[in-house]
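Internal tracking record. Fields below are filled automatically when a chain is submitted to the structure queue. Please do not edit lines marked as system-generated. If the sequence contains nonstandard residues, flag them in the REMARKS field before resubmitting.
Queue: standard
Priority: normal
Entity type: single polypeptide chain
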Amino acid sequence: MKNLYALFFIAFIWSCPLSSKGQDLSFVNHTELGLLTGTDNFGPRNNFTFQTFNGVQLSSRHAVGFVTGLDQYGNYSVLPLALGYRGILNPNNKWQVFAGGELGYGSAVFEELEVNEWDQHHWRKGGRMAQGSVGFRYKTQNANFWTISVSLKRQISYFYIGNPARLSPNRNRVTDWNYYEEDKVTFNNLVYRIGYWF
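SYSTEM-GENERATED OUTPUT FOLLOWS
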């Protein structure tokens, strides 16, 4: 897991505008707000999503970078950390078709351990995520873009319940618990977004 975080940190630094200053590659940002719709282990749902892509424009058609944001599944918050790609089909037109993809990890860093009056522990962990998008972008007079897109997004998370057998139990060691249950939850999403690209 530490190696994964190190990879994302390096990708983030590499895609920041300060690191691309003075080079031929220009900085690109694509920020979007949207609606996560779909089903999971608990049934159908509609949730809020925000994401921002920061990277470098390799050519008029291709950009790579780092994606982060927030996906809100009811009272469960997921911080996506992913490597991303954006490709533009017709970069010289006013209305342009683009596609994108992200592959990474959805972190449950905002989630806290909850303990009830029976000393039952509840906690959550993130997991792998992947997303593919298609959309349109409209060129403004400033050569920036308004965007609309549709995505398929898959997010895996893990929910845990346990009663400890010792003080300060290790969450990753089953023998530290009298009762230990792990539920794998897969969020399959159809995502609608609007955004701004510069």
